[in-house]
Amino acid sequence: MGSPDVVSSGRLAGEPARRLSAASPRHGEKVIRGLLILCAALSIATTTGIMISLVGPSIGFFREVSAIDFLFGTEWSPVIQPPSFGVLPLVVGTLSVTLWGLIFAVPIGLAAAIYLSEYAHPRVRSILKPTLEVLAGIPTVALGFFAFSFVTPLLQDLWPGFLGDGPNIFNALSAGLVIGLMIVPIIASISEDAMSAVPAGLREGAAALGASRMRVALRVVFPAALSGIVASIVLGISRAIGETMIVLMAAGATPNMTFNPVESILAMTAFIGVTATGDIATGTIEYDTIFAVGLLLFVMTLVMNLISIRLVRKYREVYE
Amino acid sequence: MEPASTTSTRAPVIEPLTGVETAAERARHRGLPDPADVVMECLGLNVFYGSFHAVHDVNLSFGRNEITALIGPSGCGKSTVLRCLNRMNDLIPSARVEGEVTYDGIDIYGRAVDPIEVRRRIGMVFQKPNPFPKSIYDNIAYGPKIIGMDGDMDHIVERALRVTALWDEVKDRLDDNAYGLSGGQQQRLCIARCIAVSPDVILMDEPCSALDPVSTSRIEDLMVELKERYSIVIVTHNMQQAARVSDRTAFFTASPDETTGNRTGMLVEYDKTARIFTNPVDKRTEDYISGRFG
Fold this sequence. Notes:
heterodimer, A: 320 residues, mainly alpha, MetI-like fold, two-stranded antiparallel ribbon, 12 helices, B: 294 residues, alpha/beta, Rossmann fold, ten-stranded mixed beta sheet, 11 helices, 32% helix, globular
């Protein structure tokens, strides 16, 4: 019980009405609002800028080379006379590396997420998860070196004869595995977030019916967390498709239309990386190929994102 | 509140025993279930969460085909005791249980006991309705599927829904998502889901606290019907509910530890519901049920 002059009381009789207009116009608010809008607009402007810078030179490219020849041609030799601009070997190279990466990363990443979310003691999780996330921050050039100087020799040593010839010095498998290593933390961490967000009540409900932990994880938590899990995989695929350094260092530079993991390939990103830093004159058709390939990469990622959004809408189980 | 005194929480009731009665007569005299009809029993049950002593030395027996209500103020450990009865506390990493909890005379915390088998016989309904984000049909079918129950699944689903009086309300939309049901229907669905695996004991943790009075009344009626086939233990904050549905009532309270000041839950009094609500022995029970508590 405070005294009346300590506790601010309502208006007493005879006191003048309180002023409701602002003492000074709040310009600061408007400035802050403007700054925030600017920051939000920056990312949109950047995306638009990238699109324009890709589309412009690509138009020049497609005036010279037909889109059909580009998209469905199976021979990539832009600097040999006569040049051939069939991009399929590069697309297959990228997809091959991505595929081997995913075969490695998705099961391990999801298993790690299930362990962290459903089995690990909180103390174990509080150590493991940050460690895993640090893994995601390793520079890819270090990973590329690791693939080239450690994984490839290891694969060559361990290669069982019945699978045919062993891996080349440059091969898709080594690059794919190390890219997989790179995206395991992405898949594990984001999937774990999604699974941890599933209400404890659903787990308890299933456990009370006599479901084992594995069943609770796979039949209840997993479907409920599906949208986050798919998002993590899509992000992983995007990283794998876009990864440049590892494929450049470990997968080689031979346009090769094959999913055979032991052979050397040329990935789309590796082509862009090599060509952009090479000695091809700007403004030439050879130089414009970079933009055409870049645009195709952009479209591929976009289409994949759209498909995955559709899939998630269809299959996920929404909890409230 | 009075400190937890050294006096026995179970003072002699009504007429003193002469010392020549059978065990059954002594139990009846003290308002406990007949030893032959005990389905579950806690013996010297202590529960800890890390270093926190949540429940102190509970001895409590539950009668077969009876509804036993656990009442008491917040933090008195009644939900903790309930969750020990089907080892749901195993899901909490820091929880530790001492003492025995027997089911048909077997200690469910025994070395050879599989908690998953325990939970198949001792089901649970939770405070907040927690249907799975699946169809109504799949919610019921989930349990029978995972335990590999034989028989026609459609029949199992229909039976569970009929028992909980949901069938007529949902029979035309079994494929709809369970989240489209009202709160009371969701809770009855959770009871149906629990029944579908044919448990022996059903534990209910404040099953009506999130429901309106009409839904509450339906679930109370359902509980009374269910006790013909199942034994039910219910935790409730609603004393009228305990008085309406239960056969026996256990009153818990929390008393501060002398050294740490942590409040540890303990059983104060256990008796037939009628006697707890009309003629309690312990002053603390009387204060609580008459609304004079803290």
